[in-house]
Amino acid sequence: DASKAAETPGKDDSERLLQLRRAVVGDALEGLAQVLRRKGRQESADRFLAEVESVYRDFVEKYPQATLLLAAFLARRGRTDEAMELFRRHWPESDSNIMTAAATVLLSRVYNDQSRAAALEATLLEAVERLERPQGLLLTLADFYGLQGRVDEAAAVYEEVLRRDPRNVLALNNLAVVLALGGKNLDRALQCIDQALAVSGPVANILDSKAIILIARNNPQEALRIVSDAIADQPTGMLYFRQAQALLALKQNAAAKKALEQAYAMGFSRDSLHPLERESFDRLEALLGKPEPKS
Fold it and tell me: At 17, is the secondary structure helix, strand, or coil?
């Protein structure tokens, strides 16, 4: 029966499904290892991570096009040179989505390391050109330029994406933020973030981005209103930090200090911020002080 044969997975499909499940298991074990490490159970975490690496290596041996899953794992573990070498050698046969995900992990770890960043950028540019400038890789490249403070280059790549996909919320949001943090073309930044909100609706991280832009445009009162409304709907540490910024700009230092303390209580840290705004965080913390440790 041809129809039944079509509905029945072949051996190759069944084997691929099994291998994909093993990859998902690896991802779950990695998450569990992170939980154990946060709880101080380093020995157990290391054991899980060794198992994760074994799962990934078995998977990519069977499916070389997924080798960059292993590269991303190694990058997250701080084994950057191994990860970069895997990326350099295996990106041509990689699935494009996996390549974009691995590039994102790697670039976030090497952007402030001049030699590694230059080597990885060269590989990524080669991939971008050979693959005819795919949108996912362009966004990753633009994000990388933004992390390095190369605002004009980042903006140019985001604009390229938007010429092809004017409603791309990620490009609209990230372009708006990098322009605002770089102090460039704040009118364009506001236009982009309003377009992003028109597409996405009042999502917390997009509202946070609008607050960044409003503060850059010397409109902390409107930023405070937007952030306070967002906190009422879905409070996060980042939103409380943004509230502290707006309040400080309005010279409401006591309220700003309270908002910053709430941000810390919800897990906010300096590392949560884009590199371009960490100096402003340092100034804010110097003015308001660090929170007292909980007893």
Answer: helix
